[in-house]
Amino acid sequence: MLEVFHSLLFSTLDAAPALVFAALGAMLSERAGVVSVGVEGMMRTGAFCAAVAALVMPTPLAVLVGMAAGAGIAGVHGFLSIRWRSDQVVSGMALNLVAMAGGTFLLESLYGPNGTPAITQLSRWNLPGLSHVPLLGALSGHAAPTYLALTLPFLFHLLLSRTPLGLRLRAVGDKPHAVATLGLSVPALRWGAVLGGGLMAGLGGAVLSTAVLDRFEQHTPAGLGFMALAAMVFGRWTPLGAFAAALFFAFGNALRIGLASSAPWLLDLVPQGFLLALPYLLTLLVLALQGQRGHAPAALGTPYEQESR
Amino acid sequence: MGERTRQVLPSVLSVLLALGVCWLTIAFTRDADTATRAYLQMLWGGVGNWPAFLDGGSSTTVLRPLGESAMKAALLTLTGLSVAVAFKVGLFNIGAQGQMIWGALAAALVGAHVSLPGVLHVPLALLAAALAGAAWASIAGVLKLKRGVHEVISTIMLNWVAVSLVDNWLVIGPLRAVAEGASSITGTAEILPSAQLPRLLGESSRLNLGFPLALAAALGVWVWLSRTRSGYETRAVGLTPEAARAAGIPTLWRAGGAMALAGALAGLAGAVLVLGTEGRYPGSLGAPYGFDGIAIALIGNNHPLGAALSAAVFGILRAGGTRMQLLGVHKSFPELIQGFALLFVAGRMVWLALLARRQKRAQAQGPAQAGAEVPRA
Amino acid sequence: MSLEDASLDIVPGELLAVVGENGAGKSSLMNVLYGLYHPDAGTFLMEGKPVRFKSPRDAIARGIGMVHQHFMLVPTLTVAENVVLGREPTKRGLLDLDRACDEVAATAKRFGFQLDPRARVDTLTVGSQQKVEIVKALHRGAQVLILDEPTAVLTPQESDELSQVMRGLVAQGRTVVLISHKLKEVLGVADRVAVMRRGRTVAEVRASETTVSALASLMVGEGSKGAAMTGVPAAASGTQEAATGPVLLEAKDLRATGENGRPALQGVSLTVRAGEIVGIAGVDGNGQRELAEVLTGLRKLDGGEGTLLGGPLAGLTPALAKARGVGHVPEDRLARAVVKAMTVEENVALGRHRQPPFARGPWVDFKGRRERTNQLLNSYDVRPPDPTVALQALSGGNQQKVVVARELDADPKLLVVVQPTRGLDIGAVAQVHARLREARGRGAGVVMVSLDLEEVLALSDRVYVLYEGRVTGHFTREHLDERELGRRMLGAEASHG
Fold first, then answer.
1. ipTM of the complex, rounded to two decimals
2. What domains are there in chain C, each with its CATH number?
3. Is B21 helix (H, G, I), strand (E, B) or coil?
4. Nearest-CA residue of chain A relative to C66?
5. Cβ–Cβ contact C348 with B under 8 A
6. For residues B263, B269, B275 and B279, what is the CA-based torsion angle, rounded to 10 degrees?
7. Pick from A15, A199, A260, C111: CA 20 to 30 A from residue A266's CA?
8. Under a CB-based contact definition with an 8 Å cutoff, are residues C349 and C358 in contact?
9. Which residue of C has its CA nearest to B376?
10. What is the pTM for the complete model shown?
């Protein structure tokens, strides 16, 4: 039993980072008031660019390239939604479509339909002290992103709740005009949050092709970006909440995969499809119970206009 | 610039620009000649090879491609209308995909398991699909109107719930077709011939009833919105809900009704797919039709006829996309064009500002006139 | 709103008032001064040197602070967080909230404000929120404090308190710029008054050397209209004796909950008869808005009972209210009365779009709608008289004319109007007032909620005063006394009778 739980925990920690990073990224952008439905496209771009970069450079550097690519897509989103006050959902969905089709097109024309050539995965770290401790041992043997994913949420929490920048970001997501009258730049704060969100989403994507897999595949990230949005909403737009939700979703996924191999009879009782739907159903349920605006930032999705001539 | 022009111009420019940008991507990854030839193939694949036909080729050289384009256009029109109708009450329906999944499943089940003469079978299957789609959309509608849950989030969630439940459970489990002999089939049982959408041009083209059906839907939605009391009320609710409420309009019913109609249209798209081409609910829908709908609706300026028009354009491009494979360009390439077109529509403020500036400059030299206004989204 | 050729001298250590009609450019000028808007031309001299403010940051650095008409507070943050936002005290890179609270408490105390720095702003009263705004500016070392229409949302008592605060600041050597259109109030507190008209500064006078009527004529440009501006009942309704008819509305002990979930109406009883204008006076936020909403079916009644035009008040919906003959000119025109993106004719149909001449069966009657709209645009002198333009292309005054035209065209038995002339220019104000009197003359009952006491006094045959959701005063025209009315608005019990 302990054995089973250990392996469940292990695969959860292996799979969670992409979700955690993307959820944090989406949260950062949305806390500053910019809707982040484009996170799927940012992940896909990050995953693709990281995989391609890893063909010519060390994988850790390639991950940085993936982050930059995510930020690049976020930059377009920022240009349209901050600079030009376009509809943020439309802009995000447009970028998703471009990333989806663009990824397929580039993959096919550069490497053929089977994905990029295999790359060197990020190396896994064994924590010698922990390996043999029951359960805690599941912490050992992951690649760097896992450990980053276990710490970043706390740093984000600190950033948002305990730093001047965090205070300003929260303020700009709730009432941008108040921030502007204090001489702070609303666009600058939003740009920072959107680009930071893009870096995180790009990181989430890069992790998929450098740690979870060893290449970019046709369907990456296969809806993980949308699941990250669910985690963000489920976690009430807070770093620790989004973190917990992402871990929970990843655990559910690991459980499902584990059950499929170890106890298929159970899946006759509770079909896999139902388990797959569970994270989304739960998010819907939480939203339905919260009611009204829930915990979304007040100015979310509202373009900021300085002068109302 | 007239009002009409001002509405249409950004979309036209966006599509043209997207065509240009995408041409460049092929030109860069391959070469300019390939790019041009790929575009020509896309065109012949979409509208038919007219030069060859006029040179005495068989009518199939144009009828078949046009039929393929019309089929794609039918699906795009219906999902585009779905998104556009929801937009009219201020709701962003990202959930056309999920609604279409349930519609397709309902059509497949009625098509396979109910036996009726054709005149009744097809309408019944269409009705079932519309109801299924409407029901699924109504979940998001009720969550929004009763609980204030933002529809963007809820419809995204509902899409994945639909995919999970249908594709990963029902279709591979309880509703899977019974294997005949050694061959096992993916998806549900095949629909009865009486449920198939009749083909309109015989065997030379796969054009079926789905296309006129989609056009009729577009026309119907347009007439409803622009000429009827309830259409007027629906638009008022979408533009200024509080004013509509104060005017005695039943806002919840109108918004919920529009959302249900959006779902019904997406459900019909599912039916057209199943009854017209697939013949069963396949393992999965196979394409993000719902996201296409967003692009189609927005490129069509959220106007029902605009949606039909942009669906026609992209139906042609998408059908022609398969021919691009001859030159080693992936058949999903037109989706990239569509994505960029949407991106440029989303960024139309940029265009309009640049255009307005140009116009202002021109006017500064010419006689003084009122400057062009930049509409806000 | 635009400015042309506006100039202003601000002298240190004085209280300068800037007055002008709505739309005269007062707020624009101040926003330019504060670095929020950028002037197309012109210069700024501070202490003799030219300066250029790129953003409020520059203005703040130069010691200019501004309290906006619509508060610029983040409701979800605490008082202290709002005050220190942008110049947060830190300890080792992290926010030092304790120090922030101490600092804010100290600043507040120095200027004599009672504020809990740890309270969330959305839990404070409007008056307290304004204090937070002032502390915010002072905390940034503002030497020049600009207050934009600060008393618009305050009770007379709070206004008096604010006047003392402003005088106190001036006594401490700071400069206060007060933007207002309440001339009496201005003359009571300012040292000097600058008058703006149509984007220009037209006069600067010492407060001690001018009068309300002199200022009023400067504001409107000609002496004759001054009376209308200051609300002196030029064509007072007293001249024509109101012939009151049958009871249209009889309500007892109405109770309703406000937007914030708190009780807004706590037992309001009132009667409205045909052929009278009943004013509802009160300081903003004392239940007037909710009362209007109850009468038009927009807000659910929690308790109490009443009869409205022959039917029960309980269970009233907007559609039902309309059917019984209630007309409604709501306060927030753009949110409630019109669909600004629709055309003028579509807006004229709004609410009556199911009946002829606006509809025929389930279909829109385009021809009938066009004809009726053209008639109304003519008789109400709406400009431009084009039924096909989007309503948002019209000026605020013309939009309001469309709303009033639409509501009166339905020949309502009871007309509920809320702040009917807010933000309108003088001409439009006069026309709206005339139309309301005309409706009364036709035998309609009019319930008019207005925050503008002068408007209430000018038009009403009877006045109910609301305070904290209760009726604290009821006056007939002959017994109207402004001082007493003001006392009741603050909840004072009746001193006589």
1. 0.89
2. 15-230 (3.40.50.300), 237-489 (3.40.50.300)
3. helix
4. A181
5. no
6. -100
7. A15
8. yes
9. C341
10. 0.86
